[in-house]
Amino acid sequence: VRRVTSSDATAPHPPVPALELPPTADGFTAQFLRNLNFDGGVTLADASTNDRYLALARTVRDYLMLHALADQQRQAGAQAKAVCYLSAEYLLGNQLDNDLLAGDLAGVAADAMAACGIDLDELRRHEIEPGLGNGGLGRLAACFIDSLATLGVPSIGYGIRYEYGIFRQTFEDGQQVEQPDAWLTLGAPWEQPRPEAAQTVSFGGRTETVDDAGTVRSRWIPEWNVSAVPYDYLVPGFRNGRVNTLRLWRAKATDAFDLRIFNSGDYEQAVRAQTFAENISKVLYPEDSTPQGKELRLQQQYFFVAASIRDFLGRLPEDFDLARLPERVIFQLNDTHPVIAVPELMRVLVDEHGMAWDEAWAVTQQCFAYTCHTLLPEALEVWPVELLGRLLPRHLEIVYRINEEFLAAVRARFGDDEMRIRDMSIIAEFPVRAVRMAYLATVAGSRVNGVAELHSQLLRDKVLPAFAEFFPEKFTNVTNGVTPRRFLRLANPGLSTLITDAIGDGWVTDLERLHELEPLAEDAAFRAAFAAVKAGNKRRLNEVLQARDGMRVGDGHLVDVMVKRLHEYKRQLLKVLHVVSEYEGVVSGRIALADLQPRTVLFGAKAAPGYAMAKRIIHLINAVGSVVNTDPRLDGRLQVLFPPNYNVTLAESVIPAADLSEQISLAGKEASGTGNMKFALNGALTIGTDDGANVEIRELVGDANFFLFGMTEPEVAEIAQAGYHPAAFYQEDAGLRRAIDLIASGAFSGGDRSVFEPVVSNLLYEDRFMVLADYSAYMAAQQRVDAAYADQDGWTRAAILNVARCGFFSSDRSIRDYIDRIWHTPPTT
Ligand code: B1N
């Protein structure tokens, strides 16, 4: 036992006698009680669940802080290149178990809580997850910071400390109702405010030109400022003593701002101004994939990147030569949301540091890299010139100049090809003049990457073809990944133990070792143990669902799961049509009840509050569920569950219990998907299209262990080209017709045909995502699923092979790919 004392030369701080490394139960208990008494101001006897939770969280954080301080000492004066991950979203999930695991504190914490007579599980359930993201993009950022810390990459995550994260979803009469996510109200024990490190961020105003010793320079005279206050979260690596920082910015009114108005005697206005400033970090925009061009959203984006750039530059030595900035940092742009950082760095270098434009541009190009996460044209962010000019006039000038020089280079290479110039201009002219942020990022970044092989190829061929031709060397791929710590080790303790008993625990940080499980697929005893783990996970899910929503998965049911944001391109409607077809088949007598494979279909999905069709689809799922679940003719053999408010915490119970993973987007629309990886890694079989990372999953697990169906992306392009007529599929397929007719008849809406009429007519006459064209292939694939599930042992064999062959999908591998292909940061330790 090493006790940290002042005589210890490596001690990072003065003595804290009770905090021992390695931790002991006594030391942990003492620190816990200290936090309860002095931080919480209560005795153990009087402490509420919340008091106990806060003190426990503080204690865990204290131990991590010990590592963080030592880490800081180790890195003090280090000159290594750092990764600054710029992301508007981090969907972190619960912190307690994650930090107990990473810090190897679970044992002492359990002992300490037992010694205090506290139920640790109750405190676990008390935690509210920080939902500071919408879906896959935000969760990817959270997985990446976990891997960066585990790999020991010098890095900082920068983002926004939203006061309200993604809304809490409830259902009223089957329809989504959004409730505010007041995640901070009971205290925020994991964060550390650092008011002394606040940055000022300016907005509005105008520019003026000044004659600076013969050179004409532009200068920004902003109109208003806000203060950006950092809140730091510790990001521990897995048992490696490394702790990185996630720095999230909160907007506060600046004193100067308040004073100016206050002195003018208008107190009310001063208070209003404060609210105005603080609105910037008030709420996460609940849009996944289809951002609305709202002014406040642009304010959020600039707010956090301007503060982050200043913060990072402030860490460099006073006399640092900014021409060498690329040796010290790479700013990774997580989609277009932080791309306003590009003109901001230019402005800082040119206007504030007097660097020549060309030199600043060379530096900037090396300091950024851009990850694109989409293929949907409507998801590519554009900012109207009018808005950008009003909010950030100097940045607009800088963008214009970048564009001018870029288009001059295009002309130099291709001549005055006006079509090409219009296609490649960073400024779109229609429907309004607007800055295309993806183009700006592509021109400015040293690399552009997609998030799965197919996505990166389509990015080159379809989304940015002119840029891929102009800058072929910039384009690369990094297939997404997920952290094995949270999504296997923590979420699936049963399977984790089984794996570790078989091959040791090295897989937690070296996931490719799961390959060593492959021979065990042929071992009957291992298969039995694996099946028993799955059954246990279903029981555990039932406990969670019972307590949370009064729901349960049927005994002996195939657990068929579709959890993801609600979006037409993801095709929850295709899944609904399958359920309705099975229901209709039994009710009409075409399917004998005894022939129906018992199934529970579990949905989880939030819809953007302004996305009317997505909300109707949620309503339809709930409506179908309430009919199917209670119709005695089905005798409970087909169940539809839709627990509200799907989030990271629920995912951790659902994914390990799943038999079948639904990944059924229209080919060419899902950039990658990451849920698909989590399911396969936990031994669910995928039914999926040739889309996103499904392609790579299937290649790795093998055709025999994956239910592929549907059109390929080139086939989709071909029928789109020829003119797609969904009604023709309806006419030709009797089963499809019966399912759609049943919905249209009002069978799921108490006879009211109007309720789902918009869904039905959209399917018949528009069907942008070709649900009807893939219906029959999907139904056939589900028949293959039923047949395969009938052979339980064969199914388990396939499930084991899925686990064994999915080590590639670790976010540790993704981060190594970023290092090799994009960041070129020093080797990790
Ligand atoms: O990013 C994930 C991918 O796995 C998914 O396929 C992709 O859909 C998702 C605007 C987005 N793309 N774009 C967004 C999120 C919020 C927002 O306001 C767009 N999310 C994705 C990780 O690569």
UniProtKB/TrEMBL annotation:
GO MF term list: glycogen phosphorylase activity; pyridoxal phosphate binding
One GO BP: glycogen catabolic process
Domain of life: Bacteria
GO cellular component terms, semicolon-separated: cytoplasm
Entry keyword annotation includes Cell wall biogenesis/degradation: no
PTM-bearing positions, type N6-(pyridoxal phosphate)lysine: K678
Keyword Protein biosynthesis: no
EC number: 2.4.1.1
InterPro entries named in the record: Glycg_phsphrylas (IPR011833), Glyco_trans_35 (IPR000811), Pyridoxal_P_attach_site (IPR035090)
Catalytic reaction equation(s): [(1->4)-alpha-D-glucosyl](n) + phosphate = [(1->4)-alpha-D-glucosyl](n-1) + alpha-D-glucose 1-phosphate
Pfam families linked: Phosphorylase
Swiss-Prot/TrEMBL cofactor(s): pyridoxal 5'-phosphate
Keywords, comma-separated and alphabetical: Carbohydrate metabolism, Glycogen metabolism, Glycosyltransferase, Pyridoxal phosphate, Transferase
Family designation: Belongs to the glycogen phosphorylase family.
Known role: Phosphorylase is an important allosteric enzyme in carbohydrate metabolism. Enzymes from different sources differ in their regulatory mechanisms and in their natural substrates. However, all known phosphorylases share catalytic and structural properties.
Name of the featured protein: Alpha-1,4 glucan phosphorylase
Species in which this protein is naturally found: Microbacterium azadirachtae
